[in-house]
């Protein structure tokens, strides 16, 4: 039973509701066509033929996260076996194995420069390793341990070698200056855990997805929320920017994937799995933005044509839930991490 | 045939979690038979292979440590932080409260040492006794309430389907099963953790192994444990089939470290052998039950296996909801929504159009549609792709074409940047690009060099006697001046750089794209690289900035 509101609050609530309705109306006005209709003239996309090019074996427990470096070749994966592995995804070789202090890693990030990797999870902190520096035991050197979270670390991304943005289970978004080892700012971003984050191609903005079922667009330099996107009916597990920087795709627990547009300030397309039974844990977009790929808990990766809103196919091979996808920036290879202890490179 | 003599129940005292090392593991403890439940078995410890493959000396050291158990190895921070965070913590607390009552000396479940044939079975109780005790001591509402709580945990659907109303005996059995599935009590000779209302024997788990201690045993520990089991030449300790399989798998996995694991196992087994026989029995079974919880028999529910992200978020969501939204939060939301209403939004049809043009623009560069010029390294087993990306000479027409999409694309390509700067030099407007590059460079400098570099840049580009003066509008000039004087940080030039970028984009860049220098270069590169699949020249009119800004 929620506490009874005083008249002032009630009035505010009423106003809020009215505004919400007004916005919905406005959105309807703007939504003058469906995506599929508007793109009807576009030729059908060919069927995507991706096969596993490399099976990256080495983790001995669930792999929770994978992320490509900016060089399109190296990727880092983090697993519950307490290791980060840096892979050469082309040869399939392990470049480096980084033992972690805590095995509960939930998110990893590779700096675009390839110099640093960051990881964190249920240890409630974010650890940054310098890939090019080894300590006396031969493991990568810890350059920063970022503390102060009241919840698990769920997502992290490098803006560049100096600035790291993290989202965490305490609903906060934090910007770190790695050079100075100080928090630039932190602020409550969502009404629920921040689960996923994606940087825009120009690095000026980023979107976050949260268990509060919304996605938000942020300025990379200030704590102001620029836009809010509703629509999902369950946790938004993954967000991924469209390469044009004008839209982003999502993957959600509510068994749908959606495309939101920043310019029209709303959802423009919804992609549903053919079975209707697959919740999505991760998503990625192809370099022309034509395909959206979503890792699912039904062990496969579903692919849709974003424009014609058609299911293009699915990639199977993993033997357990897929936890994370990462597309190389040139669009040539897709990395997927799974609970089956493997990372696969699709090409 | 079976005689029972009542005695103190084992495993009653709750051990201080922080200091179990007070219990020395070398040598029998207490001397008495049966009062062994509260011993800390030395064999389970957490010592990760933090340093890769250890040297022999290190291994010996580690083995020595293993022999003299010290719990300090547990990652202290983790244990501390996650104990409260663990979503199961509340349920564990409840279960532990029941266990505490069950283990009460006078009113608890009768724990006995059973004599059967030649051997003695220490510190056990029967399933029937347990269920009877639960029915007597826990009222039915309480039972079902506990059951509801336990359902919050990830349990099998089969167990879920039993959710219909149950008679008290079933209810009690069910709760017992759930508690057993978390390893608080366990059947003495079965790997499957269930409780039956009959004369099978059960034992309490020692508090040290309770799941509330946030055990995250590693595979190495499991390997040591299994390895140790093979050393004890007893039928009761023989490995089950699945354990043997696991051992083989682990042995393969840790092949290089196996020597180390073997040494640890040997050391632990030595310590175990010095123990009193009955005590050892109890410890062996408790340890086995611990692993039955954490590495369950195939087909059993692993209660420690939960989607940690989801469980954690559920707990925080519960915390977040009860708080009512205060008025100022609402008004802030209203303000945001009002702003949102003011936004001019683009029609969906227009948006779709822009997607299409973006897609058309980039179709040549999406390997899903057009095979890349340099063979896809994953398809061709050829790594020349990465060299090609970096090279500045002999760029293909396809790559050059991309420069015309947007200034961003042009500057992203090292060859493009170089060509553009040549063009600007010819136009005598190279300073803009130089300034922009300097600003980008500033962002990658070490912190201590930033203020100096910012000052230097001021003198070079904006100051009164600037060597390469740039043109910025008055407003950004003032802001930048203030920034550099007061707070020369990484971003102090951002506004000026944005202005300069805009200038380049609207002025020099559009002229560059139309210039003969660019078209010549494009045509030249076309001749040089007669790559198959390149289409006719795309007309750049109108589409330049269509989707890519």
TrEMBL record, chain A:
GO terms for biological process: signal transduction. Pfam families: WD40_Gbeta. InterPro entries: G-protein_beta_1-5, WD40/YVTN_repeat-like_dom_sf, WD40_G-protein_beta-like, WD40_PAC1, WD40_repeat_dom_sf, WD40_rpt. Keywords: Coiled coil, Repeat, Transducer, WD repeat. WD repeats lie at residues 56-97, 146-186, 187-228, 229-270, 281-305, 315-347. Belongs to the WD repeat G protein beta family. This is Guanine nucleotide-binding protein subunit beta-2. It comes from Frankliniella fusca.
Automatic annotation (TrEMBL), chain B:
GO terms for cellular component: cytoplasm; neuron projection. PROSITE patterns: DEP, RGS. GO terms for biological process: G protein-coupled receptor signaling pathway; intracellular signal transduction; negative regulation of signal transduction; regulation of G protein-coupled receptor signaling pathway. GO terms for molecular function: GTPase activator activity. This is Regulator of G-protein signaling 7. Residues 24-35 have a biased composition (Gly residues). The keyword Manganese does not apply. Keywords: Signal transduction inhibitor. Residues 105-206 form the DEP domain. SUPFAM superfamilies: Regulator of G-protein signaling, RGS, Transducin (heterotrimeric G protein), gamma chain, Winged helix' DNA-binding domain. Residues 1-43, 69-89 are annotated as: Disordered.
